[in-house]
Amino acid sequence: MAKVLMLLPERDYDPTEAAVPWAALRKAGHEVIFATPGGQPAFADPRMVKHGFGLLNPLLMTRPDGLAAYRDMCSDPPFAHPIRHQDWASVEHDALLVPGGHAQGVKTLLESEAAQQCVVASFAANLPVAAICHGPVLLARSRMADGRSVLHGRKTAALTCALEYSGWLMTCFWLGRYYRTYPTTVQAEVSAALASADDFVSGPLPLRRDRRDHPEYGFVVRDGQYVSARWPGDSHAFAAAFVALLAEQR
């Protein structure tokens, strides 16, 4: 079975995007270890876990299965004892997982030079890598010796402009820029790192979220050893695709 390294920020990641893949990996018998900026346990965006969005909860709040998976992940002993980003090379791993999130704390992952080095080394070793939502921003910023992103020449999904702006428009009057992590959209930054803008794959209109019993509602892009997806509504399909990729490594 594989040992999967999950890169997390100090705080504020999306609970569904981290915990649904974690649960699928553990069910398949894989080991998951965690890395955070300071080697402390990292907890998800509290608005997505507890505080919610009032009347907008049916559209924006984490679904019950995602919350249940997140609670299980937080009770997993490796979660309580992560390594530091800078110590990634000291721990052998067979695959890499990068969840997303949009609140400001996720920047401690996306701007981590050590995490970027881990990404570059993982791609150079042709390890299976999975990234969802804002996760591909970290990959876009991870530069090889020639200055190109590890995503250059690959096809990828990530949070689309339509999804990012829809969340912001629904909440900006009371949450400000909560849904806008950076002035530049995720799609724009990731696309700029690709060999062609056509390599950014938006997928079909996300009219519903996928579920454990209906992963086909989600959308995933696979390019060789790399799997990517757009938002929490793709998490079950994303998890299934990553588990399938790891099964091929046996």
Short description:
Pfam families: ThiJ_like. This protein has a single domain (3-247), classed as Class I glutamine amidotransferase (GATase) domain (Rossmann fold), CATH 3.40.50.880.
Model description:
InterPro entries: Class_I_gatase-like, ThiJ-like. The chain has 250 residues and is an alpha/beta fold. It has a single domain, classed as Class I glutamine amidotransferase (GATase) domain (Rossmann fold). 38% of the residues lie in helices and 12% in strands. It is built from eleven helices and seven strands. It has helices at residues 15-27, 46-51, 57-60, 64-74, 77-80, 107-110, 113-124, 135-141, 161-175, 186-192, 235-247; strands at residues 3-7, 31-36, 83-84, 95-98, 129-132, 220-223, 226-229. The chain has a seven-stranded mixed β-sheet, with helices on both faces. The chain is globular.
Tell me the count of domains.
1
Classification by helices and strands = alpha/beta
- Write out the CATH superfamily name: Class I glutamine amidotransferase (GATase) domain
Radius of gyration: 16 Å
CATH topology: Rossmann fold
CATH architecture: 3-Layer(aba) Sandwich
Please identify the top-level CATH class: Alpha Beta
The average pLDDT value, as a whole number, equals 96
InterPro entries: Class_I_gatase-like, ThiJ-like
